[in-house]
Amino acid sequence: MNLNLENSSKSELIALIKSKDIRINNQGIQIDNQGIQIDNQEIIISESQSKINYLKFQIKELQRLVFGTKRERFEAVNNPFQAVLPFDVEENTTITETVKEKISYEREKTTKREHPGRLPLPAHLPVEEIIIEPNEDTTGMVIIGKEITDELELTPAKFFIKRTIRPKYANPEQGIFIAEMPSRPIDKCIAGNGLLSQIMVDKFVDHLPFYRQIERFRRDKIEIKASTIDGWQTAVCKLLVPLYDELKKQVLRQGYLQADESPIKVLDRNKKGKTHQGYYWVYHSPIEKMLFFDYQHGRGHEGPEDLLKNFKGYLQTDGYVVYDAFAKKENIILVGCMAHARRYFEKALEDDKTRASIILEMIQQLYAIERKIREEKFTHAQRHTYRLDHSEPIMLEIIKWLLANRDLVVPQSPTGKAIHYMISRWEYIRAFMFDGSLEIDNNLIENKIRPMVIGRKNYLFAGSHNGAERAAMFYSFFGTCKLHNVNPHQWLKKVLEVISDYKVSKLSELLPQNLKLDSI
Fold it and tell me: N or C end of the chain, less CB within 10 A?
């Protein structure tokens, strides 16, 4: 006789306990008079199997992280468990069934592969003409045409000495006259503005550590010590500090910021061979296209709280708990990231493909709407209206499905965690519907951090906390240059030429988005 504890009421169990001889031990519950034994081995096996499944999932994630692709694209398939949503079909659209039809015939087809042709050479480049005359005597001949062959050529960067000569003139009555020396960014520095700019761009844009640049200089028989270059970098940064502060002011004045953080190892001078885990906190203005890196010693709430203490507007972040405190601030509206929510379900495909696919397909429809908005270049007002008409119904279906399936999955499973994450952050995730200027996700700022991550792989760590702060300055400037399609070398060279004598009240004119390279 089997005793079903799940289907027995509390009163029935109490009555059974009072009327029978019951002993409870670590093997389960035994009822002697009935000869019934309830063994909890099945419960133990079930729990163990859940742990095994979770560990298998963790192993697959680690294997994908180390050996697999980082691709997160989801290709939707016909899902028998998902009905056609009401917003999937436009009005007056005829729904047709696909019928397989077998057709047999033969035909001859000539395949001609056309060459795409050579790419046009840039029109802005100077042209060096070389005329080659035939070996024969051309005296008296008439030129009937020309064969012209263009090649894209390169002259490697070359060093040269820029010598400034100021003649002295003597007047017996008035004294000696000599022209004033033009302003130089670093007093008594042998490096010119072009060389200083190139060194900084090579490191923070093209990710060449100083020691690699030194090797390249040696190929041109130029010996520059690492300590010398480090000193140049420090001096350049001192000049740029006021401009860096101006960039911070401009970024924090924006009413919509995206925020993220990324680690950077910093050499610990107090512990030989050890590094400290510092963090770059990155703030991006999608509307004005500005980028600001702020170095902090840790990942705690102190850094962003201090920087954003006077910020007002929308703050878009991922699910890191530090950002949740900003939701309680009166002047800040926290906006979530759909891409992070989607990532949980993409990882849950191995756990429960049916359920994960349903959400991924609906999120895919949201991104199709965002793609249409970008391609047709909607204004912010048009984006807001279009989202209300097309994205809002999908968002309602998503939250309905999440609530309906929350109790049907194991909470600690990948699918359970994905559902819990999206429900718990739903208020923030759907906040992009509030304003047409907001993005659906935080991907823009993640793309802006990527150059720093590539550089980090090359130079491994910063030499000091001051070095990490200096790097944050260049990542801010050069990242903003990239957003506005400004040549970083030309920009920095021009800034170094004029910043020593520039009015502090007009420093904003030197920011990458404002500086006209040919106007100064």
Answer: N
